[in-house]
Design goal:
Number of domains: 1
Number of helices: 10
Strand content: under 5%
Distance between the termini: 17 Å
Largest sheet: none
Helix content: over 70%
Number of strands: 0
Length: 212
């Protein structure tokens, strides 16, 4: 949203927020219809306030951090090694060919953005840096910002898809632990499909009304 605000204006950044908000409400409502359940009454016990003990804080902090180390770091490390290997062997650009129908034709994005969407799952907060790095590799050192190789519409679509699609592997690993592998995979595939469908529809709509 920050990149969209810089290159397109705050109105378009707000538009992404509104789209994701509406989609969240819609999907939540549909899930409530197809997967009905009962909400238990909320009962909260108010504990007396006490000064926190440093020992307890350190124990709880380590417990939270240990979960990340055990589940997330191995996945991130392995994925980074795969990405580095594909880059060094030049096989990375071969990945763009089977993805071109969705990335270039449906979403209207450059091929380099498709690679970023694929590997941005490793660290979603670094998707933008990865996009610029790959763009410099493909287009040369003249690339200094997103507008050097993408149109304003492509920046908007890329940001929208990135916002909606599967979260990073750290979140996926937590999902697997909390809800099981099958449910986590279902959630991941659903978010990918949702992002592709919404991104493609937004691309076609913008092409039709010529707002950018």
């Amino acid at each position: 949203m920050g990149s969209v605000a810089i290159f397109l204006g705050w109105q378009w950044a707000l538009m992404i927020y509104l789209i994701t908000f509406i989609i969240g409400l819609t999907v939540g409502r549909l899930m409530a219809v197809f997967l009905p359940g009962r909400s238990a009454g909320l009962v909260m016990e108010m504990f007396p306030f006490r000064v926190p003990k440093l020992n307890n804080i350190l124990k709880k902090t380590w417990y939270r951090f240990r979960e990340f180390i055990i589940f997330a770091i191995p996945i991130i490390t392995f994925g980074s090694l795969v990405l580095g290997g594909l880059y060094e062997t030049k096989y990375m650009w071969l990945i763009t060919r089977p993805m071109s129908l969705i990335v270039e034709n449906w979403l209207g994005l450059p091929a380099v953005a498709g690679i970023c969407l694929l590997f941005g799952v490793l660290r979603k907060e670094l998707a933008l840096q990865l996009l610029l790095a790959l763009a410099i590799i493909q287009y040369g050192p003249s690339v200094h910002n997103l507008l050097s190789f993408m149109t304003k519409q492509q920046i908007f679509i890329f940001a929208l898809v990135t916002t909606l699609y599967i979260p990073c592997v750290a979140a996926i690993s937590v999902l697997i632990r909390e809800v099981g592998k099958r449910t986590a995979i279902t959630i991941s595939l659903f978010t990918i499909a949702l992002a592709v469908v919404v991104g493609g529809m937004a691309n076609k709509l913008l092409n039709a009304i010529h707002l950018m």
